[in-house]
Design goal:
Largest interface: A-B, 32 and 23 residues
Low-confidence stretches of chain B: none
Chains: A mainly alpha (309), B alpha/beta (146), C alpha/beta (177)
CATH architecture of the domain at 3-100 in chain C: 2-Layer Sandwich
Structural class of chain B: alpha/beta
Oligomer: heterotrimer
Strand order of the largest sheet of chain B: 2-1-3-4-5
Low-confidence stretches of chain C: none
Helix content of chain B: 25-40%
Number of strands of chain B: 5
CATH topology of the domain at 3-100 in chain C: Beta Polymerase, domain 2
Mean pLDDT of chain B: 91
Radius of gyration of chain C: 21 Å
Order of helices and strands of chain B: HEHEEHEHHEH
CATH topology of chain B: Rossmann fold
Number of domains of chain B: 1
Distance between the termini of chain B: 9 Å
Chain lengths: 309, 146, 177
C-alpha cells in the first residue's frame, strides 16, 4: 500500500510538474515575444513541440555510444520529477519531510545537468563534447553560490535541514527574504537558477548559433522530447525550491495560495526578463562572475544571516 | 493520424542551409523572425542542428562543394521532413546554370539520396517573406495529407 | 620628364604624379600604355617583379589594391593594381608569364596580401609562382581534378566540366532505434 502511495505521488508530481512546466515555458516565450513587440506562440505550443517530437524517428549517429546516449535524457527527467515530488510534498504537507531532505533535493537537481554531460559525451560529436566541457565548467561555477544561498534559508529557518521544518519556521518567525541577508541570497539564487535552467546569459552549453545546439546536437525524436520535458520540469521546480527555502513556503489559506502563485510567476518573469536583456557571456566570464562575484556575495549573506541580519 | 499531423503542423522547426547563395534569400528568411512577420506565432523556430528540424530551408545554387554536404544534411534530418527550396537559385540555378562550379540543382541533389523527398519551391529573387509564409501555409495543407 | 614608348610605338608623355612614379621605375618598365592624371598603366619586365613590388610598396601611401590575371595568347598576363592614397591614383603594372611554363616570381613573401590572390590565380588560370610560401588549392572544390583551369579561354564551362562528386556513402547502421 505504501509502495503504491509512493508511486502514485511520483506520477502525480510528474504529471503536475510537466503541466506547470509547459505553462511556464509558454509564459517564457510569450513574455519574450511581448518584450520584442511580437505576438508569441499560442498556449498549447510547448505541448505541440513535445508531441511532434514523439512522432519523429530517432536517429542515432554511428559514432555514438547507444546506451549512454539514450538513457541520459530519461534519467535526467526522472531525477527532476523526483525532486519536484519531494518539494511539493514538503510544501503541501510539511510533516512528511525528513531531516536532510534539502540535501537530497539539491543532489537530485544536479543530476539533470550531469545527464546532459553524459548524453553529450556519448554523442560522438565535437560540438557536443565542447558543449559538455562548458556544462562541466558551468556546474562547477554555480553550484557553490546556489548552496550558499540555500544555506541562508537554512539559517533563517533555525538551522534545520528539513524542507518542511524550514517552511514552518519561516511562516512562524518571518520569511527569510525580508532581511538583508535574504535579499542578497535571493539575488544569488536567481542568477544561479538562471544558469541551472540553461538560460541566456549562461547557456553556453546549448549555444544555438555558436556550436549548433552544443550538447543536444545529435538528439532527435523521442529522446529530444524527453530532454524538453526534463527542462520543463526543471523550470517548474527551481522556483519552487527558492520559494520553499527563502520565501516562506506555502500557507494553506486562500490568500496564501494566491501569494504563492504570485511569487512563482514573479520568479519566472525575472528569469525571462534577464534572459531577454542580456547577451550570452563567454564561459570564462561566467566562471569568473560566479566565483569572484556571486560566491563572495553568498558568503557575505551567510555571515550576515548567522549574525542575525 | 490526426494528432501527429496537428502536432507537426503547429510546430515546424526550420534548419537553414546555404549552399552557395548571395545571402539575399538568407536575409529574407531571417526577416520572417522579426516582429513584422513573426513566424514564431505559428510555432516555427530556427534550430541549430538538422536533427532537430522538420523543414530544411535551402537557399543558393548547389555548388559542387556544397552538393555532398547538402545530401549529408538531408540524411541527418529526422523524417518526416519537408525541403523548402527558396529563391530562383535553389529552384533551378537560374542564370548560373552553365557555370563551371555548379553541382546538380537542389531538387536533383536531394532526390539522389531520397527519391520520395517532399520539395516545395518558393520562386523569387529574393522571394518576399509573404511568399515564404504562403509556402508554409501550403506545407500545412500538404502535411494534412501525409 | 622623359617620354616613354608604348608597345604600339607611339609616345606617351610622362607627366604629373603618375609620370613621376613610372619614371622612378624606368629601368624595369618596358612600355607605358597610359599616363593620365589619376591612372597609369605600364608593362614591366617579368624577371623583376619582386623588386618592382618592393619599390612600389616603399612609396608613401601606396597599397596593393589587387592583382588580376588575363589569359592572353602568349601566356598569362598578371596585372598588379597599386593604389596610392593621398594623390588618389591607381597604377597598373603588367607582367607577362610567358607560356608554356607560365611562371613568375611570387611577391607573397614581400606582400602577404598577395598570398591568396596568387593561389586563386593558380587554381583558376594555371599561373605558377616560384617561391610561393603556401601553394594549396583555394577556390576550387575538393573533387576538382588537378591541372584543369576553368577560366582559361579554351575551357568550355559546360562541355569541359569534370564529373560531379559522388553521393556520400550511406552509413552502415545509422537509423531507427
Amino acid at each position: 500500500m505504501k509502495f503504491l502511495a509512493i508511486i502514485g505521488t511520483y506520477v502525480a508530481a510528474g504529471v503536475g510538474s510537466l503541466a506547470i512546466g509547459m505553462a511556464a515555458k509558454w509564459y517564457d516565450r510569450k513574455v519574450t515575444a511581448m518584450v520584442q513587440y511580437r505576438k508569441g506562440p499560442p498556449w498549447y505550443q510547448p505541448v505541440a513541440d513535445v508531441l511532434k517530437l514523439f512522432y519523429k524517428e530517432t536517429l542515432m549517429p554511428s559514432t555514438a555510444r547507444g546506451t549512454g546516449f539514450l538513457i541520459a535524457p530519461a534519467v535526467g527527467l526522472a531525477a527532476a520529477v523526483l525532486a519536484a515530488a519531494m518539494l511539493w510534498a514538503a510544501l503541501l504537507n510539511p510533516g512528511v519531510s525528513f531531516v536532510g531532505d534539502l540535501i537530497v533535493v539539491v543532489y537530485l537537481l544536479v543530476i539533470p545537468p550531469l545527464m546532459t554531460i553524459l548524453g553529450a559525451s556519448a554523442s560522438g560529436n565535437p560540438h557536443a563534447s565542447l558543449g559538455a566541457s562548458r556544462e562541466m565548467k558551468l556546474i562547477l561555477s554555480y553550484e557553490l553560490p546556489l548552496f550558499l544561498a540555500l544555506l541562508v534559508g537554512v539559517i533563517h529557518g533555525g538551522w534545520k535541514l528539513g524542507l518542511g521544518d524550514m517552511a514552518t519556521a519561516q511562516q512562524a518567525a518571518g520569511t527569510a527574504l525580508y532581511s538583508l541577508s535574504g535579499i542578497l541570497a535571493m539575488i544569488v539564487a536567481i542568477l544561479a537558477m538562471q544558469a541551472k535552467l540553461g538560460q541566456v546569459p549562461f547557456d553556453q552549453a546549448e549555444a544555438e548559433c555558436e556550436i549548433m545546439s552544443g550538447v543536444y546536437v545529435e538528439y532527435s525524436g523521442p529522446p529530444l522530447a524527453l530532454i524538453l520535458m526534463g527542462r520543463a520540469v526543471l523550470m517548474a521546480t527551481l522556483p519552487l525550491l527558492l520559494i520553499v527555502t527563502l520565501w516562506g513556503g506555502l500557507e494553506p489559506t486562500g490568500l496564501g495560495w494566491l501569494a504563492f502563485v504570485g511569487k512563482f510567476v514573479l520568479l519566472l518573469t525575472l528569469v525571462t526578463l534577464i534572459r531577454n536583456t542580456n547577451p550570452r557571456l563567454r564561459i570564462d566570464q561566467t566562471v569568473k562572475f560566479f566565483w569572484w562575484g556571486l560566491a563572495p556575495l553568498g558568503v557575505l549573506a551567510v555571515v550576515l544571516a548567522a549574525a542575525g541580519w | 493520424m490526426g494528432l501527429k499531423n496537428w502536432a507537426l503542423r503547429k510546430s515546424l522547426w526550420v534548419y537553414h542551409a546555404n549552399t552557395g547563395a548571395c545571402n539575399n534569400c538568407d536575409i529574407e528568411v531571417l526577416d520572417l523572425l522579426t516582429p513584422r512577420f513573426d513566424v514564431e506565432r505559428f510555432g516555427m523556430l530556427l534550430v541549430g542542428s538538422p536533427r532537430h528540424a522538420d523543414v530544411l530551408a535551402v537557399t543558393g545554387v548547389c555548388t559542387r562543394q556544397a552538393q555532398p554536404r547538402l545530401q549529408e544534411c538531408y540524411r541527418q534530418m529526422a523524417k518526416p521532413c519537408i525541403v523548402l527550396a527558396i529563391g530562383s537559385c535553389a529552384n533551378g540555378q537560374g542564370i548560373f546554370a552553365p557555370a563551371y562550379h555548379m553541382g546538380t540543382p537542389v531538387d536533383e541533389t536531394i532526390r539522389a539520396v531520397d527519391p520520395n523527398a517532399i520539395i516545395m519551391y518558393v520562386p523569387g529573387c529574393p522571394p518576399k517573406p509573404e511568399a515564404m509564409i504562403a509556402a508554409v501555409a501550403k506545407a500545412w495543407e500538404l502535411i494534412k495529407t501525409l | 620628364m622623359t617620354d616613354a614608348v608604348t608597345t604600339t610605338g607611339t609616345q606617351v608623355p610622362l607627366k604629373g604624379f603618375v609620370g613621376e612614379v613610372l619614371a622612378g621605375l624606368s629601368d624595369a618598365v618596358t612600355a607605358v600604355e597610359q599616363c593620365d592624371e589619376r591612372r597609369g598603366m605600364a608593362r614591366i619586365d617579368p624577371e623583376r617583379v619582386v623588386e618592382v613590388a618592393e619599390r612600389m610598396f616603399a612609396l608613401d601611401g601606396s597599397r596593393l589594391a589587387t592583382c588580376t590575371g588575363l589569359d592572353v595568347r602568349d601566356g598569362i598576363d598578371v596585372l598588379y593594381h597599386w593604389a596610392i592614397e593621398p594623390p588618389g591614383v591607381v597604377i597598373t603594372l603588367k607582367a607577362l608569364a610567358a607560356g608554356p611554363d607560365l611562371t613568375l616570381d611570387s611577391i607573397a613573401n614581400v606582400l602577404p596580401a598577395a598570398n591568396w590572390i596568387e593561389r586563386e590565380m593558380h587554381d583558376l588560370l594555371g599561373a605558377n609562382f616560384r617561391n610561393h610560401p603556401d601553394m594549396r588549392r583555394l577556390i576550387l572544390d575538393d573533387s576538382w581534378p588537378e591541372g584543369v583551369h576553368p577560366l582559361r579561354k579554351d575551357f568550355d564551362q559546360v562541355r569541359d566540366r569534370p564529373p560531379l562528386p559522388p553521393v556520400p556513402p550511406a552509413p552502415e547502421q545509422e537509423g531507427q532505434v
